[in-house]
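Need residues for this backbone.
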């Protein structure tokens, strides 16, 4: 059958024999092109001014998406920004010609009165903030789906379930720093915002019916507020190197640290993903070699890759420096944390806290199921662990509410959780 595209100007293209076996999903329409065709890329000042004027003259919510080059580039910058608004159509803006980073605040100003509709906003807001584009009003279709209890909240999955329309997602992991962008990538990018407003409208109706609209509003506001705050730097980020668990000595950890820091500097300078310069496993393998020397690392496969070979002198210097460190300067095997330990360790370290955690988790899981809501959306698991590990003194609803507010729990979460879990925090 032919299904009308929600929020688009015309019908979606019917499923054809070349798209797949129609007998597998006879009621699904595969959308392969935007209703108005794929627009040209905005990459000049004149075209940008045209886009700004058109978006300003449009009406209603604005569908927004951004494409990055995860796994290819060091930066998390946006390499394409897609916008669609009723009365304006779809605009695909290439931020790269407009600066490093670009200042696209005039685009944001043109739609400042509108609600921005983004799928998985937590992924896109940081790179949009980098080009000075942040919404004042937000609707996150992925988060709305979670609050409504949808088991799968990928954009394509939700469109297929709600509208019997399928998007082809073969370019989701592409290197969007590629220039010029291939024509089929441009079509893919335009389709990502083609149906967002229609999806938003359906989900907003369901949130109203479920009495969850206020929950969603608080969650969306928290996303906007958090997007403008720089993330806290992780202590010792090199400790997250894959395979580091096989390194059994402080000297080996010093090698990991030296190689990781060297690789990070090279990757930043090249704007290449660190794993493209040197893999984590190569670093861990070198660090685990008890007979490692500033020359022997060349026998490890990852160091023989073309790009890694260009920096042999850097790897050699990093290893030599780590091997020459005095014992007092070697990193500790483990670092202490102010937060609770991993939950699997609680039973041996603090059996009382372990029982508290089990009680609280069970109660929250039951309440979340009754609300048709994932437990992690009812209350962030990290907040649960922190509260159960060291409850406030004295344990009462006011103190528990204050603790959760300090962690970042929203008002609706605290209203539901505090009366439920406070009695469970006492021995």
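Answer:
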């Amino acid at each position: 059958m032919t299904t009308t595209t929600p929020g688009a100007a015309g019908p979606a293209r019917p499923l054809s024999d070349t798209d797949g076996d129609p007998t597998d999903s006879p009621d699904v329409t595969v959308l392969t092109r935007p209703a108005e065709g794929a627009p040209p890329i905005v990459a000049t000042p004149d075209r940008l001014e045209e886009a700004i004027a058109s978006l300003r003259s449009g009406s209603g919510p604005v569908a927004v998406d951004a494409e990055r080059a995860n796994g290819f580039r060091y930066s998390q910058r946006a390499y394409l920004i897609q916008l669609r608004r009723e009365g304006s159509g779809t605009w695909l803006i290439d931020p790269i010609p407009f600066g490093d980073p670009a200042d696209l605040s005039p685009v944001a100003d043109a739609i400042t009165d509108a609600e921005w509709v983004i799928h998985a906003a937590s992924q896109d807001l940081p790179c949009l903030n980098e080009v000075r584009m942040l919404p004042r009003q937000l609707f996150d279709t992925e988060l709305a789906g979670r609050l409504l209890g949808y088991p799968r909240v990928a954009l394509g999955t939700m469109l297929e379930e709600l509208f019997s329309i399928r998007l082809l997602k073969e370019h989701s992991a592409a290197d969007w720093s590629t220039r010029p962008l291939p024509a089929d990538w441009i079509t893919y990018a335009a389709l990502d915002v083609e149906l967002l407003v229609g999806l938003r409208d359906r989900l907003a109706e369901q949130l109203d019916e479920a009495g969850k609209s206020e929950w969603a509003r608080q969650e969306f506001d928290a996303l906007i507020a958090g997007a403008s705050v720089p993330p806290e730097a992780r202590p010792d980020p090199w400790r997250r190197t894959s395979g580091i668990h096989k390194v059994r000595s402080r000297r080996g950890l010093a090698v990991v640290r030296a190689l990781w820091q060297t690789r990070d500097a090279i990757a930043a300078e090249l704007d290449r993903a660190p794993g493209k310069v040197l893999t984590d496993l190569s670093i861990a393998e070198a660090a685990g070699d008890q007979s490692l020397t500033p020359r022997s690392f060349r026998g490890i496969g990852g160091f023989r890759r073309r790009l890694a070979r260009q920096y042999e002198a850097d790897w050699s210097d990093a290893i030599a420096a780590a091997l020459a460190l005095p014992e007092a300067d070697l990193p500790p095997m483990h670092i202490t944390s102010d937060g609770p330990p991993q939950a699997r360790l609680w039973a041996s370290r603090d059996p009382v806290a372990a029982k508290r955690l089990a009680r609280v988790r069970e109660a929250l899981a039951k309440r979340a199921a009754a609300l048709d809501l994932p437990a992690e959306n009812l209350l962030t698991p990290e907040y649960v662990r922190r509260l159960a590990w060291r409850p406030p003194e004295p344990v009462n609803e006011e103190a528990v509410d204050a603790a959760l507010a300090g962690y970042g729990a929203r008002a609706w979460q605290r209203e539901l959780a505090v009366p439920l879990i406070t009695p469970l925090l006492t021995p």
